[in-house]
Specification:
The chain has about 475 residues and is α/β, with parallel strands linked by helices. Helices cover about 40% and strands about 15% of the residues. The structure holds nicotinamide-adenine-dinucleotide (NAD). Nicotinamide-adenine-dinucleotide binds near residues 31, 32, 123, 124 and 285. It comes from Arthrobacter cheniae.
Length: about 475
């Protein structure tokens, strides 16, 4: 299914031939770029991955994925063995050996404002363009402020020896860490932001197998493609903060947000996905993307249209403080000297990504109030230790909870949600647990003598506890 929306005015012609099996470069080989490079090679293309980080390039070239992503190490080794994938730090090499160049570098939040820091995108595109002496397509995949592709088109065509024979397209990426391979090889949809038929055709040749498998394709102008990504992330963030706002109301009224979410989820117009109450969102995308979007909208004179995103952000951040409040309550209002086991560091399970991780934010706040905090995460320990050396870390779950006054579930890894409350109870000093992710069976914990607390749920539930812990009808999950 293809929905094309290029007006006559936007469509420009190019004499450059369409290359049926384009060779590709993928510039920036982090979570997004490494996955994209490996998956494109898996689809049969010749791919060179480019990064300024020599250690990352060396790791990938030697068959090691420098982050946690299920299935990716195996796929990397197969791709390297096929001879279709290699990695380099040399932009001249990338320019010479590829026809289509995917830009996958980071766009973090700027240090001094909510805007996106565009220095990495600008540097990557400029360094590449300087070597482009024949027709080429540069395809942005990074999440960027609206208007970036237009700006970069001018920049690239000024720098590149091939001038206007180099074109730009935007192909936003929607992959979820933890499901990155599946989301790359079987995405819900592809979005091509293009300014010419040539760019659309050439980009189609990069996804021949996916299009043949009838992955829906939406072809747009450049600005719409940029907007699709931030609009999608804003929607998801809003849905999460919506149910967390309801949790705040529940906390003031004795209502139970988990029952509320369940009742809402049966409404097919609402649905249960992303309606899960708890500690809220984090990671390298949603928080910085909604902030950058609100900032960019203001620059464009439409700040009011997305002013609600600031509230979405505030609700999200308040959940972290509220989690600390509940832990404090459980130790009689004073955290000083309390032994707190923090289960989880990654911003979500099945990832080692700790960027803007709610778990580590909570751990730090607890420590700042004098608690003795021990953190354990199945995969994110190295990243957490590097970023927050002031925290204490355990080597495993048992060590983390040993003699704890309160256990706090902050990232819902299976290892934590599968733990037996009775066995866990024998290890701690007091059976008190805060379920920051609404991921535990409250009834099982209470039956095993635990004081169970969760955001937006009453301390002593008056109603259908058993119903609340039944499997959900529609996945109330991200
Ligand atoms: N991580 C995700 O799940 C995800 C999903 C969709 C979109 N995105 C977007 O993709 C982009 C990349 O995100 P990420 O999570 O992969 O970031 P990341 O930090 O993991 O990777 C970025 C990579 O770019 C490299 N880099 C920086 N400057 C460079 C340059 N000038 N030339 C070459 N390489 C350079 C870095 O060394 C790093 O390896 C961001 O815009 C992000 O918002 C990420």
């Amino acid at each position: 299914m293809t929905i094309t929306h290029i007006s006559e005015a936007q469509s420009t012609s190019s004499d450059s031939p369409i290359i049926e099996q384009p060779r590709m470069s993928v510039i920036g080989t982090g979570y997004l770029g490494a996955t994209h490079a490996i998956c494109m090679a898996t689809l049969g293309y010749d791919v060179v991955g480019v990064d300024v980080d020599e250690n990352k390039v060396a790791a990938l070239q030697s068959g090691r994925v420098p982050f946690f992503e299920p299935g990716l190490p195996e796929l990397l080794r197969t791709a390297l063995d096929s001879g279709r994938l290699r990695f380099t730090t040399d932009f001249a090499d990338a320019a010479a050996s590829a026809d289509v160049h995917f830009i996958c570098v980071g766009t973090p939040q700027a240090k001094d404002s909510p805007a996106a820091d565009m220095q990495y995108v600008d540097a990557a595109v400029s360094r590449l363009a300087a070597h482009l002496d024949r027709p080429a397509l540069i395809v942005g995949k990074s999440t960027v402020p609206i208007g970036t592709a237009d700006r970069l088109t001018t920049l690239v065509q000024e720098i590149a020896p091939a001038g206007t024979a180099v074109q730009l397209a935007w192909n936003p990426e929607f992959l979820r860490e933890g499901y990155a391979i599946q989301d790359t090889l079987r995405p819900d949809r592809l979005v091509f932001g293009v300014s010419s038929d040539w760019a659309r055709e050439q980009l189609s040749r990069c996804y021949t197998a996916l299009l043949a498998a009838e992955v829906p394709l939406v072809v747009t102008d450049l600005a719409t493609a940029e907007l699709v990504k931030v609009a999608a992330n804003s929607f998801l963030a809003t849905k999460i903060s919506y149910i967390n706002a309801m949790a705040e109301v529940c906390e003031a009224t004795g209502a139970d947000v988990s029952l509320l979410a369940r009742a809402l989820s049966y409404d097919s117009r609402i649905g249960g996905r992303f309606l899960k109450p708890g500690l809220g969102f984090g990671g390298g995308c949603l928080p910085k993307d909604i902030r950058a979007f609100a900032y960019r909208a203001e620059e464009l004179g439409v700040g009011q249209a997305v002013a609600f995103l600031r509230e979405v952000d505030s609700i999200n951040v308040r959940r972290r403080h509220r989690t600390v409040d509940i832990v404090r309550d459980l130790v009689s209002g004073n955290l000083a000297g309390a032994r707190i086991a923090c289960l989880g560091a990654a911003f979500k399970p099945n990832s080692d990504d700790i960027r803007d991780a709610p778990a580590l934010d909570v751990a730090r706040m607890l420590q700042q109030e004098g608690a003795s905090v021990t953190v354990f995460d199945p995969e994110a320990m190295d990243n957490a230790r590097r970023a927050y050396p002031q925290l204490s870390y355990a080597d495993n779950l048992v060590e983390a909870v040993l003699d704890a006054d309160v256990v706090v579930l902050l990232t819902e890894w299976d290892e934590f949600t599968d733990a037996n409350p009775e066995i866990l109870g024998r290890l701690v000093s007091s059976r008190r647990i805060v379920d920051g992710r609404h991921a535990l069976n409250a009834d099982a914990y209470r039956s095993a003598g635990w004081e169970y607390r969760a955001l937006g749920r009453p301390e002593h539930p008056a109603t259908a506890v058993f119903l609340a812990d039944e499997p959900l009808p529609v996945a109330l999950s991200a």
